[in-house]
Design a protein that fits this description.
The chain is mainly α. Helices cover 72% and strands 0% of the residues. It contains 4 helices and no strands. α1 runs parallel beside α3 and α3 runs antiparallel to α4. The two termini are 20 Å apart.
Amino acid sequence: MASFNEVIAEMIVLLNKGASRDARMGAAVGLGRAGGPAAVQALRVVMHNARTGEERGAAAAALGEILGRGQPADLAEPE
């Protein structure tokens, strides 16, 4: 069984290199639900570098979901 960090790492790869827009947007949603510092960092990068406005919007919504929970651990430096 994969660890939480391994799952996050795989979603980040998909977010950055997914073959389709839907795969990349789905990864953004998953990272928003999972949270954590690595997810926050990856989503911030995508907000500035995404291929489409829809992808930037999905990253922004995911960040909003994470930050809306108000968990200080989500803002720590990634491991």
